[in-house]
Each structure stands twice: as structure tokens, then as C-alpha cells.
Records
---
Amino acid sequence: MKRTVYLTILFAFGVIIISSCGSKVAPVSERIAKVWKAASVKENAVEVYKTGGGSANTKPGYVSYSLDLSAPPAVKIKDVDGGTYTGTYSVTATTLSIKGLTPQPTGTGGNLDFQITSLSDEGTNLVLTGTIPYPKTGNTTNTYTLVTN
């Protein structure tokens, strides 16, 4: 009888331990490996584009902005001016570094670096902030709120 009670308690304890373990969040490198489009863009903290913003968007060209990170380490960017750039990227928990872009976006030397301000656990929302001013937008510091396609 004691053995049955001990086994039951041990089994119940095991079930509690296993059920209390939450689902694991995929690493940043997996959650970021998607095609992203602009939901909102701020230049020097001023919102210049928002999905559905209509005539309030001072830079409507962001409607076609996309950041394709779906085939690591390759990256493809369709920028606000409609230009398309390809290169490679690397990612850490807090940074996204894009290197060797061709053709080189004006004034960048072919490199862009971003701080990952936010990334949802599901990998459906991403906020990136440029670490240096972006020459193509008038040397503004840009924050991109991106969503998956």
C-alpha cells in the first residue's frame, strides 16, 4: 500500500512539473527569418508612414517597403524609394547587421545596423531602430515597426 501511495505522489509531482513548463520561445534568428513589411515608420521620432494612414502619410512610398530575411543569411530590401538591395545579414538577441548590400544604398557603404527594439514571441511583429542616421532619408534616425506578410 505504501508503495502505491509513493508512486502516485511521485507521478502526480512529475505531471505538475511537466505541465508547469511553458512552451519555449524560438531563438531570435528563427523568429526573424521572414519577409517583413512596414506597418509604421518614424524618422527622427516623427511618424511618416502608417498602414492605412492615407493622406496623413508624408512618405507613402513605405507602402512598398519590405525586408526579406527568409533565407538566412541572404537579405533583400525594397526601400522607400523603390530601390532593391541584396546582401547578407547576421543577428544577435539585440542587433540586426546587414552587410555587403548591392547596389550600395546612398551613403551607407553597403552596411546597415539596427537595434532590435522589440520582437514578439510568435515572430509576427518586429521593431527595428537604426543605430546611425540613414542618408537616404535625409540623415534621419529611423524606427521601423514591421509585420510579417
Note: The chain has one domain: 26-148.
---
Amino acid sequence: MKKWIVLFSLSLFMTLEITAQNITQKDGIYYSDNKPYNGTYTSVDASGKKKSTIDVVDGKANGTVTYYYENGNVMESGAFVNNEKSGEWTRWDEAGHKTAQAFYVMGKKNGTWLIWDMKGIKRYEMNYAMGEKTGTWRMWDEKGNLSSEKSYSNI
């Protein structure tokens, strides 16, 4: 019985070693065996803790991405389209409190961005149109009172 367990464990380890892929990144493109990678790439730190997961298509980040804190909690999540940030991106602190919400189109800041402090009080509201500051930007103090406004136009 012990021999069987040892042999099974050894064969499992060898199978995992053989099927493990060595994925590299060069100039923003992910490669496996010198070919553009397709699948979900998970990066880990030296101790084996997950740092990120990224959906990859034809070597480019394409789909969801999640970054992690050392404690395993999610730090940030969003999506890429053709290697560029797209759609909603959300950030949390290490305790899991939402601290920021941002939007992108073709890698450019677009839409209303919000930032909250550790107590959950909204501190900043910023607006972008294809990477340019626009609209009214607002800032609140630590008590949640509006403290300043500034207007931008992209004329």
C-alpha cells in the first residue's frame, strides 16, 4: 500500500511537471513555447502566492484580469480588450473595502471615476472623455462635505 501511494504521488508530480507551461512576456505579448499564449495566465510570487490572473488570447491580455494582495484578497479587477484596459476597473484595500472605480475605452480614461477613503467616504469624483479631463471634478473632506469643485471643458 505504501509503495502504491509513493508511486501514485511520484507519477502525479511528474505529470504536473510535464504539463506545466513556461509562459513568458515580451513587449506586452505572452508566449508559451515561443508561440502566442491562449488561456488564463496566473502569476505567482517567489513563495507561490497568486499575484494575478489574466485571460490571454493570441498572446494579448483579452478578458478579465485580477490582481491580488499578498494576503490573497483582491486588489484590483477589470478587463482588457486587445491588450488595452476597457470597461469598469475596481480597486479594493487589503481589508476588502472598495476604494476606487474607474472606466476605460481603448486604454483611455473615460467616464466618471470615483475614489473612497478607508471609512467609505467618497473623496473624489473625476470625469474623463477619451483620456481628457472633462465636466465637473469634485472633492469631499473626511466628513463627506463637498470641499471643492473644478470644471473642465475639452474645447
Note: The CA atoms of residues 10 and 16 lie 10 Å apart.
